[in-house]
């Protein structure tokens, strides 16, 4: 991991910060609840990410989840652009507990229906509660905003983490964010953050799900 301390030239934060949020591409394995499970990307998943980065600004820093489906591509991109990379554990996906790695059709249909209808109050057995996940991701987001020295940053993470940040910026309640935002593999969202005397102003500039099925 690169040294995260700013260089002497980076003594003040930029007034405008551009952030490209990217979900990882297609991982190996069947469709399942994949949170902490550490699968690699398929060749198609790598191609999806290569297409997605053509929509992004050239980053001055990359931040990545530690899970391989994010980290492997992030490290490749950091080498390509010769920019520092930060591996940030709090950007990892939600933990689905006993549902980890299970295909959808192997989960009790009643429990699954309750989860889809109200994930805030129906946590998978031994899983991470949604509000705890939100607190973790938003703490990572707040730390990033407080310490960012670069003007253009790329964050490569997961559908869940991307959804939490977007819901926060758009004012979507936690119990509605699962239904209000489509974030398929390699989905790209661009944010603009303005630092003003009145505080931070955040805006979603673009949201680009690729033209491919989930």
TrEMBL record:
GO terms for molecular function: phosphatase activity. Pfam families: His_Phos_1. GO terms for cellular component: cytoplasm. SMART domains: PGAM. InterPro entries: His_Pase_superF_clade-1, His_PPase_superfam, PGM_Phosphatase. This is Alpha-ribazole phosphatase.
